[in-house]
Amino acid sequence: RSHGHPMGGANNNLAGAGRSSSSAATWVPPANVMKAQLVHLDAMRFRAKADGGHEMLFDGGDAESRSGQSPMQGVLLAAMACTASDVVMILRKERVPFASLEIDAEAERAKDPPRVFTKIRLHYRVRGDGIRDSAVKRAIDLSSEKYCSVGVMLRRGGVEFVNTRGILPME
Hints:
The protein has helices spanning 71-93, 133-147, 149-156, and strands at residues 36-42, 45-50, 56-59, 100-109, 117-127, 160-168. By secondary structure, it is of the alpha+beta class.
């Protein structure tokens, strides 16, 4: 049953598009499916929410008048949050005595539409005393190459990543 959701219903086989099937009613989505909803508010503003998450406001309008992140800013911020989560988890697991992590990003875009990201530079700043550079490098490398789903997905799409790091003493 549809339950009123525009993407619901037994005959919805969007994930299986292009596959032939004798009965769409027998198709069962994989357990690892993420669902989200988006609602147009006005102008170029949209409210979006993934199941189990919090609402986000996106605004695809002119930069001067935006009241939310642009979709591309959202992608960049998602990549930063993804790798930050990995790095913090890895450093904690390795018992690295860090006090904070900050990341600055610069993203280059293609000149012509679609204006996709072509290169993303991430500069990680880890603060703490007695932190080994090798531990920070390892955490960043593991995130970049193995764990950060957003970053790996962007890399597979042709985005070049340049990671740099700095270790700062406690203030």
